[in-house]
Specification:
This protein has 382 residues and is an alpha/beta fold. The chain folds into 2 domains: 78-162, SRP54, nucleotide-binding domain (Four Helix Bundle (Hemerythrin (Met), subunit A), Up-down Bundle); 176-366, 3-Layer(aba) Sandwich (Rossmann fold). It is built from 14 helices and 8 strands. Strands 3-2-4-1-5-6-7-8 form an 8-stranded mixed beta sheet, sandwiched between helices.
Length: 382
């Protein structure tokens, strides 16, 4: 099946010193989960380290075959998004609809309960109370008179929060350098693979930098993706200086005239300070080669960690300049409301969302589609 994908994808020949990609049955059915091994030095961190991994992984049976079909299914973009957001829809909009069922008048109790639903769906106390402060005022002014109008208003408010007026991504730069950061296990490496696939579909060429030199299996993991995607991977040895890898990757990217260089980074070092210092150093070294690089710094957050994702975002923002968020694992979580909390409190654009383990399950985030998929009334079941 990967043959099919490889045929589809254009790109430079694989650059690798690692074992060749075997096209046996086993190689054909690796899961994304399989490639995410636990960091080896997990015990090196103090329990107090606030950047400790919060995601549980792997979430599913590691032997489960994944990526069986890399061609996006015919069911359609919106239908798939809706289906993937089922859990969030159930945890949020369906509870809201159950509460409003058969009611006409807006009572203070209804407003309190709705606010609570938003909080439990991980929209968060701060964001939910801000939305409801405005809504209560509108009810008082008789601008909102029935529950249908109220439902629409909540939908509108969420949409408003999600629109942070970010310019569209241009992927400009010669090459465009994308730094991918985030704590371990959130999905950085698999997201890089999906992003590469996405960019290739747009006719762009990519080059990957294995700058997570801390975790032994990390280099191999990215390398395997590189081979699958027929994309060169620049790597050094385990334990090497990550900024040297980034530097070499940019140099190679310039030489080969690729469109986008994507840099994978470690999610965990010995301490949080190490991690942040490392990122700063990578940035400094990148800028030596291309002064305005990195052009994008994406923070990857795991939606299943809810409010914890927000704390991570705040910590990373203090340490490094972020240009956007990629929110993974929105499938299989009822915590989809975290999208609103992040957009509201970080004022950073959510650039992509991960809604599954397939290559094409990374989507540019479109606030309108997202909110519409959540709020669309079910005709039959979900
Ligand atoms: N369901 C689901 N799983 C995902 C998604 N994105 C990533 N994953 C899974 O998350 C797990 C961790 O992914 P990795 O890409 O290895 O995470 P990482 O951030 O690179 O981890 P470290 O290298 O340890 O820092 C894997 O099992 C992935 O398959 C998503 O959108 N949905
Ligand atoms: Mg990784």
């Amino acid at each position: 099946m990967f043959k099919k994908l490889l045929k589809k994808l254009k790109g430079e020949p694989i650059e690798t010193q690692s074992p060749s990609f075997q096209e046996d049955a086993q190689a054909e059915a690796p899961t994304l989960a399989e490639t995410a091994e636990e960091p080896e030095k997990a015990d090196d961190l103090s329990p107090a380290d606030s950047l400790q991994r919060v995601a549980q992984q792997p979430q599913e049976d590691e032997t489960e075959p994944a990526i069986q079909e890399e061609t996006a299914p015919a069911e359609g973009f919106f239908a798939r998004l809706k289906q993937k957001l089922t859990k969030s829809k159930e945890g949020f909009v369906r509870r809201m609809d159950e509460l409003l069922l058969g009611k006409k008048e807006i009572s203070p109790e209804i407003l309190d309960e709705l606010e609570e639903i938003l909080v439990t769906a991980d929209v968060g106390v701060k964001t939910a109370s801000e939305i409801f402060e405005q809504i209560r005022a509108e009810v008082k002014r008789k601008e909102l008179n029935d529950v249908d109008a109220l439902r629409e208003r909540i939908q509108f408010k969420l949409l408003e929060l999600l629109n942070v007026n970010a310019p569209p991504l241009t992927w400009e730069g010669n090459p465009c350098v994308v730094l991918v950061v985030g704590v371990n296990g959130v999905g950085k490496t698999t997201t890089i693979a999906k992003l590469t696939y996405f960019l290739q579909e747009q006719g762009k060429t990519c080059l990957l930098a294995a700058a997570d030199t801390f975790r032994a299996a990390a280099i191999e993991q990215l390398d395997t993706w590189g081979q699958r995607l027929n994309t060169p991977v620049i790597k050094h040895k385990h334990g090497a200086d990550p900024s040297a890898v980034a530097f070499d990757a940019i140099e190679a990217g310039i030489k080969r005239k690729v469109d986008v260089v994507i840099i994978d980074t470690a999610g965990r070092l010995h301490t949080k300070t190490n991690l942040m210092e490392e990122l700063k150093k990578i940035r400094r070294v990148i800028a030596k080669k291309i002064p305005d690089a990195p052009h994008e710094t994406f923070l990857v957050l795991d939606a299943t960690t809810g409010q914890n994702a927000l704390s991570q975002a705040k910590l990373f923002r203090e340490a490094t300049d972020l240009t956007g968020i990629i929110l993974t694992k929105l499938d299989g979580t009822a915590k989809g409301g975290i999208v609103a909390a992040i957009a509201h409190q970080m004022r950073l654009p959510i650039r992509f969302i991960g809604i599954g383990e397939k290559m094409y399950d990374l989507r540019p985030f479109d606030a309108k589609d997202f909110v519409a998929a959540l709020f669309e009334r079910d005709t039959q079941g979900s």
